[in-house]
């Protein structure tokens, strides 16, 4: 592993300056896009370019300073990736505001609000880095987070504050603010699962029966996965939220598999998913509609107008896109939120859409890399859970609007308009950076037993 | 726990590869299909904002885009709109396209692959992209003659006229009545357009239908030309040979008798084949149909183009001999089919093709409407060659039938189509569809017989003057004036 005589300790470089360079590039993409929208639509740079550009650059650089100060060894790529996405999302929302306004639509504007949410999200990002100095402290609150997750999930079905929008009971309304607690519940659940599974994984990993070369868990150990499945089905039944239901179940199955290292859980999970999907299809009209719309949207053009017009947008965008401000993404209902990826495909083309998907992919890759190098089981599980659920969410929403899979109501992280989504995703990134910082930070007083590369002293708490 | 983490990394990789592949599929492979879907507003908006190419007849644009000051910048304008409506169709923001506007949309809108280089140059030089132009084969004088001929029968007349060049298949005239004004649908005042659209669609005379290619009706006695062709080809009959005449044709064991129009006796029994065609004797042709047999008669019709869409440039429907090709006709039904009744139904353009093939020594040409397709820089992209569809008759039999049809105009029911100094061939028809509906008047013809320049079919479905509807009387003069316009 190391040359004789040298110290075997690997000291990672901080790479904060690299992060700053990438970050400046990401900020330039956002501000450049903002200018391009104005040039495309009116032939002149938008009037707010200096103020809005400055606000965005300052908060993004503020985030960088916070990372430098409070998580100096953290992964240097994540923050620039996220800032680039958030900027593109803001510009697209602004661009659709203008389009909706020109159409005389009563909706909008959304960009101002989204910018405020972004600032708030970055503040939360900084707060997490400042307040949670060691992610392992979260493990102490495993059951608190479990309870919080359930409370958050139940909130939208309560009377008074519960609020149904577009056929899904997933919002809570507090005065003028509406909030989608599922996004917060996702993080709380990931922390809960990580803590719970670290404690119980040996019991769950006990040998079970081996059928057809697949290790299946013992019957009595199926309890937790059945509980997770029931929670997901409950969300589907009571909140009619297909996307969150799928996401939570996927999160749970994956974390169970990683914790126990037993692929049997994946098979059980897939089987249960199939049962749930069949149940949803049989029992709920809206699930059936989504499924039929996926098979053939043109069988009912009025019902599936949104998906069809989104596909038209993608087709019209073609390889290189219409260019910022040159397409008509405002024609697609919710082209600024649920369907923002089709708006990007229209104006930035296949090239731009693929770039965005690749950026998402890189975020997931960095997240999984953090999980791989993380030394403690809790951090590893949490990083896997957050990364894989992020990947699942991107897959479900991007696959939905491009008709790879049936459409479900999930938001595209960092792009779609929506306060809860922006804030919670910034918190996820903060948690990942915190774990990454812990992982890469050189242990302060590590000593090595000389001559034996296989043996390492690992600081445990 | 790193092994499952790596496994999950592979799963995530597969998900993202799936997303990337699917994005390529939608935005690259499927994009053209999506862009051509009707109701795709993005494409419609884009096409509306573009200088669309002109549709040209005889060097003059009959449809062109003129600059206007609104969000689309260009307005489609049709000159002699009603005259050419069945051919040009319309270009509407709300209701899509029809006619040549639809079939040649990729050229007119400039999105055709052959215009790719032009588009690239437009992008580089920052010019507005432009569409190519389409020049039609129509002869404005013949078109006008056909239009006026139907219009002269009265406002409520429903009918159609098609004239073809028998030697090339070029469509010289194509008229449908009643018609509409495409400008009323191409307008940018969309509420007005919606109003016009509702009115046109609620109109029971169906002005939006191009009757010359979309209406199939029993061709009546004009179909006797097909039966005669089969008799010449398959029975080896000559013009002078005797055929069955008389007042009625009976069928063994059945009460029904086939009779002639107005109870005529066709001048006796037997009569010559030629005389039978001149007086349009139902008895003779019912008898001939039975002698030829269902299979051969159906085959002859197919050779003339029945069963196939007659023209690709417009929406068109196939004509038919029987509703279901597998039908086994009873003897009286076969006899009725032989005189263009029972389930026989044909479009006017199909009947013009029959006349044209007879005139053109038995060679059937594919009708087409487009002479030249040009890029915006006027370079020629496409110049359809005359296309032979087949030889439904031998040249000798065709000449024999042609002579017989000339005598129909000289000495028979087709006399209203006579043109002094020109040998005109023709065949009249009066067909019944339903007992409570007035019969249809048909006329098919061609001229000059020795070197045919024009073949024509006239259909009059109904006029204000319903009691007096006869193929020769109503259709003959229209056919004559169209043929005169071409020959002049």
From TrEMBL, chain A:
<feature type="transmembrane region" description="Helical">
    <location>
        <begin position="265"/>
        <end position="284"/>
    </location>
</feature>
<dbReference type="GO" id="GO:0051301">
    <property type="term" value="P:cell division"/>
</dbReference>
<keyword id="KW-0472">Membrane</keyword>
<feature type="transmembrane region" description="Helical">
    <location>
        <begin position="77"/>
        <end position="94"/>
    </location>
</feature>
<feature type="transmembrane region" description="Helical">
    <location>
        <begin position="377"/>
        <end position="398"/>
    </location>
</feature>
<feature type="transmembrane region" description="Helical">
    <location>
        <begin position="244"/>
        <end position="260"/>
    </location>
</feature>
<dbReference type="Pfam" id="PF01098">
    <property type="entry name" value="FTSW_RODA_SPOVE"/>
</dbReference>
<keyword id="KW-1133">Transmembrane helix</keyword>
<dbReference type="GO" id="GO:0032153">
    <property type="term" value="C:cell division site"/>
</dbReference>
<feature type="transmembrane region" description="Helical">
    <location>
        <begin position="348"/>
        <end position="365"/>
    </location>
</feature>
<keyword id="KW-0131">Cell cycle</keyword>
<dbReference type="GO" id="GO:0015648">
    <property type="term" value="F:lipid-linked peptidoglycan transporter activity"/>
</dbReference>
<feature type="transmembrane region" description="Helical">
    <location>
        <begin position="47"/>
        <end position="65"/>
    </location>
</feature>
<feature type="transmembrane region" description="Helical">
    <location>
        <begin position="410"/>
        <end position="433"/>
    </location>
</feature>
<protein>
    <submittedName>
        <fullName>Cell division protein FtsW</fullName>
    </submittedName>
</protein>
<dbReference type="GO" id="GO:0005886">
    <property type="term" value="C:plasma membrane"/>
</dbReference>
<keyword id="KW-0132">Cell division</keyword>
<feature type="transmembrane region" description="Helical">
    <location>
        <begin position="220"/>
        <end position="238"/>
    </location>
</feature>
<feature type="transmembrane region" description="Helical">
    <location>
        <begin position="114"/>
        <end position="132"/>
    </location>
</feature>
<keyword id="KW-0812">Transmembrane</keyword>
<keyword id="KW-0133">Cell shape</keyword>
<feature type="transmembrane region" description="Helical">
    <location>
        <begin position="182"/>
        <end position="199"/>
    </location>
</feature>
Automatic annotation (TrEMBL), chain B:
<dbReference type="InterPro" id="IPR054120">
    <property type="entry name" value="PBPA_dimer"/>
</dbReference>
<dbReference type="InterPro" id="IPR050515">
    <property type="entry name" value="Beta-lactam/transpept"/>
</dbReference>
<feature type="domain" description="Penicillin binding protein A dimerisation">
    <location>
        <begin position="52"/>
        <end position="134"/>
    </location>
</feature>
<protein>
    <submittedName>
        <fullName>Penicillin-binding protein</fullName>
    </submittedName>
</protein>
<feature type="domain" description="Penicillin-binding protein transpeptidase">
    <location>
        <begin position="159"/>
        <end position="484"/>
    </location>
</feature>
<dbReference type="InterPro" id="IPR001460">
    <property type="entry name" value="PCN-bd_Tpept"/>
</dbReference>
<feature type="region of interest" description="Disordered">
    <location>
        <begin position="414"/>
        <end position="434"/>
    </location>
</feature>
<dbReference type="Pfam" id="PF00905">
    <property type="entry name" value="Transpeptidase"/>
</dbReference>
<dbReference type="GO" id="GO:0008658">
    <property type="term" value="F:penicillin binding"/>
</dbReference>
<dbReference type="InterPro" id="IPR012338">
    <property type="entry name" value="Beta-lactam/transpept-like"/>
</dbReference>
<dbReference type="GO" id="GO:0071972">
    <property type="term" value="F:peptidoglycan L,D-transpeptidase activity"/>
</dbReference>
<dbReference type="Pfam" id="PF21922">
    <property type="entry name" value="PBP_dimer_2"/>
</dbReference>
<dbReference type="GO" id="GO:0005886">
    <property type="term" value="C:plasma membrane"/>
</dbReference>
<dbReference type="GO" id="GO:0071555">
    <property type="term" value="P:cell wall organization"/>
</dbReference>
């Amino acid at each position: 592993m190391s040359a004789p005589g040298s110290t075997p300790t690997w000291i990672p470089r901080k790479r904060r300056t690299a992060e700053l360079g990438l970050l400046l590039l990401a900020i330039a993409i956002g501000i450049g896009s903002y200018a391009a929208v104005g040039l495309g639509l009116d032939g002149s740079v938008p009037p707010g370019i200096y103020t809005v550009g400055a606000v965005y650059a300052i908060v993004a650089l503020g985030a960088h300073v916070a990372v430098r100060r409070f998580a100096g060894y953290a992964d240097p790529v994540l923050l620039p990736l996220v800032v680039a996405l958030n900027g593109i999302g803001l510009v697209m929302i602004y661009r659709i505001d203008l389009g909706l306004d020109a159409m005389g639509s009563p909706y909008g504007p959304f960009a101002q609000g989204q910018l405020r949410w972004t600032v708030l999200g970055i503040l939360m990002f900084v707060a997490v880095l400042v307040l949670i100095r060691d992610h392992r402290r979260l493990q102490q609150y495993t059951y608190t987070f479990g309870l919080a997750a359930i409370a958050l999930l139940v909130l939208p079905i309560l009377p008074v504050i519960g609020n149904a929008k577009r056929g899904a009971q997933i919002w809570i309304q507090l005065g003028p603010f509406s909030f989608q607690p599922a996004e917060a519940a996702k993080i709380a659940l990931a922390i809960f699962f990580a803590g719970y599974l670290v404690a119980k994984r040996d019991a769950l990993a006990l040998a079970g029966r081996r059928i057809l070369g697949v290790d299946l868990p013992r019957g009595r150990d199926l309890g937790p996965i059945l509980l997770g499945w029931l929670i997901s089905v409950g969300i589907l039944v009571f909140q009619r939220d297909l996307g969150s239901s799928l996401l939570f179940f996927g999160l749970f199955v994956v974390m169970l598999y990683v914790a126990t290292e037993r692929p049997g859980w994946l098979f059980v999970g897939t089987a249960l998913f199939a049962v749930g999907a069949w149940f949803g299809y049989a029992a709920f009209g809206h699930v059936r509609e989504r499924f039929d719309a996926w098979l053939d949207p043109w069988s009912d053009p009025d019902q599936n107008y949104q998906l069809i017009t989104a596909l038209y947008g993608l087709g019209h965008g073609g390889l290189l896109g219409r260019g910022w401000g040159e397409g008509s993404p405002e024609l697609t209902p919710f082209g600024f939120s649920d369907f923002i990826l089709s708006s990007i495909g229209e104006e930035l083309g296949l090239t731009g859409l693929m770039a965005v998907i690749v950026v998402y992919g890189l975020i997931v890759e960095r997240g999984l890399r953090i999980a791989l190098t993380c030394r403690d089981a809790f951090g590893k599980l949490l990083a896997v859970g957050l990364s894989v659920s992020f990947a699942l969410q991107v897959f479900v929403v991007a696959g939905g609007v491009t008709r790879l899979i049936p459409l479900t109501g999930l938001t595209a992280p960092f792009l779609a308009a929506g306060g809860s989504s922006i804030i919670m995703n910034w918190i996820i990134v903060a948690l990942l950076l915190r774990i990454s910082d812990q992982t890469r930070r050189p242990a302060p007083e590590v000593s090595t037993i000389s001559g034996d590369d296989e043996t390492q002293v690992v600081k445990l708490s | 726990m790193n092994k499952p983490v790596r496994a999950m990394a592979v799963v995530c990789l597969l998900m993202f590869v799936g997303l990337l592949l699917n994005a390529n599929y939608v935005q690259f492979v499927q994009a053209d299909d999506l862009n051509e879907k009707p109701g795709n507003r993005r494409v419609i908006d884009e096409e509306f904002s573009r200088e669309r190419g002109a549709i040209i007849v005889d060097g003059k644009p009959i449809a062109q885009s003129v600059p206007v000051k609104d969000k689309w910048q260009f307005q489609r304008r049709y000159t002699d709109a009603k005259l050419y409506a069945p051919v040009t169709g319309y270009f509407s923001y709300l209701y899509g396209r029809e006619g040549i506007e639809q079939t040649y949309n990729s050229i007119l809108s400039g999105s055709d692959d052959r215009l790719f280089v032009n588009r690239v140059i437009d992008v580089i030089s920052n010019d507005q992209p432009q569409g190519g132009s389409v020049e039609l084969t129509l002869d404005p004088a013949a078109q006008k003659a056909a239009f006026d001929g139907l219009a002269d029968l009265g406002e409520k007349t429903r009918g159609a006229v098609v004239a073809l060049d028998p030697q090339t298949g070029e469509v010289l005239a194509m008229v449908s009545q009643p018609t509409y004004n495409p400008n009323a649908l191409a307008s940018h005042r969309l509420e007005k357009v919606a109003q016009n659209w509702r009115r046109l669609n609620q109109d029971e005379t169906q002005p939006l239908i191009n009757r010359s290619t979309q209406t199939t009706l029993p061709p009546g006695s004009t179909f006797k030309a097909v039966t005669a062709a089969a008799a010449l080809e398959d029975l080896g009959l000559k013009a002078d040979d005797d055929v069955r005449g008389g007042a009625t044709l009976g069928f063994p064991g059945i009460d029904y008798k086939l009779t002639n129009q107005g109870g005529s006796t066709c001048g006796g029994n037997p009569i010559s084949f030629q005389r039978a065609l001149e007086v349009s004797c139902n008895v003779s042709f019912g008898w001939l149909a039975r002698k030829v047999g269902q299979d051969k008669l159906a085959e002859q019709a197919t050779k003339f183009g029945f069963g196939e869409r007659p023209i690709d440039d417009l929406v068109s429907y196939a004509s038919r001999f029987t509703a279901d090709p597998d039908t086994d006709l009873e003897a009286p039904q076969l006899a009725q089919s032989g005189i263009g009744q029972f389930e026989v139904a044909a479009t006017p353009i199909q009947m013009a093709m029959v006349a044209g093939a007879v005139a053109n020594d038995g060679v059937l040409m594919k009708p087409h409407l487009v002479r030249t397709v040009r890029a915006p820089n006027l370079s020629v992209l496409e110049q359809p060659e005359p296309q032979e569809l087949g030889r439904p008759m031998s040249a000798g039999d065709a000449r024999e039938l042609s002579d017989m049809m000339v005598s129909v105009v000289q000495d028979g029911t087709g006399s209203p189509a006579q043109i002094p100094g020109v040998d005109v061939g023709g065949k009249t028809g009066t067909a019944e569809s339903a007992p409570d509906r007035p019969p249809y008047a048909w006329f098919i013809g061609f001229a000059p017989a020795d070197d045919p320049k024009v073949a024509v079919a006239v259909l009059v479905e109904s006029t204000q003057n319903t009691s007096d509807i006869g193929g020769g009387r109503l259709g003959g003069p229209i056919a004559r004036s169209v043929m005169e316009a071409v020959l002049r």
